[in-house]
Design goal:
Elements (H helix, E strand, L loop, with lengths): L10 H13 L11 E12 L2 E9 L10 E2 L2 E3 L6 H13 L8 E4 L3 E2 L4 E9 L14 E8 H4 L6 E3 L8 E6 L2 E4 L2 H13 L18
Parallel strand pairs: 1-7
Antiparallel strand pairs: 1-2, 1-4, 2-3, 2-8, 5-7, 6-7, 9-10, 10-11
Length: about 210
């Protein structure tokens, strides 16, 4: 795996990320007794820099309302997790891509609320104005730049009395994004951008995400 040093959005970025993901041996987890979900870690261009699409979930949603998230959701019956990620990406933020845009996958993350989430890494050569949040699911759409992802003060690790695992979060501008989203963003940074084999399943979520 190789380290990415230039964060500009360019064709060679696609091959770099695909190569690092191919070299990484990602792990699947059992879905027995749990619900299967998939999310899209979507690389796009924002103000000339490579960025990842993140959202604030609508306050109207029954689960995890108002939290930071990656576009995604439950995998339907007879649907692959890649198909689910692509479907949810279009439904939530109006990004429609073909299977060829998929660069690879990262480790499954098991949530406290009973989901096994598979992160799908996608390359989308789109303009900012093509990316529009679905108001029934998304309060706002944001672009987490590779520069922000590589801040030296991220990740944050916190200890809570309710868990023997550390809670992970990533700094984003003047806010924090917590696991599970933060765990997947952190692994994406380490594996896809920096070329470092890193596992995140042992990092926990804050109490507000357990429900």
């Amino acid at each position: 795996m190789r380290r990415l040093t230039n964060f500009s959005f360019r064709p060679s970025l696609k091959n770099h990320v695909r190569s690092n993901l191919s070299d990484f041996k990602d792990l699947r987890q059992s879905t027995e007794g749990k619900k299967q979900a998939a999310v899209a870690i979507t690389i796009c261009q924002f103000e000339g820099e490579s960025s990842v699409v993140v959202t604030r979930r609508s306050s109207k949603l029954k689960e995890h309302s108002g939290q930071w998230a990656l576009p995604g959701g439950r995998v339907d019956d007879n649907e692959t997790f890649i198909a689910a990620a692509l479907r949810e990406l279009e439904e939530e933020v109006n990004i429609k891509v073909e299977d060829e845009a998929v660069l690879g996958t990262l480790d499954d993350y098991v949530t406290r609320s009973g989901y096994v989430i598979t992160p799908i890494v996608i390359f989308a050569d789109l303009k900012k104005n093509q990316i529009v949040g679905n108001p029934s699911e998304v309060a706002s759409v944001h672009f987490f730049s590779f520069t922000e992802l590589n801040r030296k003060d991220s990740p944050n690790l916190e200890t809570i009395p309710q868990s023997d695992r550390q809670v992970l979060s990533m700094n984003y501008l003047d806010d924090r994004i917590y696991a599970p989203t933060a765990a997947m963003l952190y692994q994406f940074r380490e594996v896809a951008i920096l070329g470092r084999a890193t596992r995140v399943l042992d990092f926990d979520q804050p109490l507000f995400a357990w429900r």
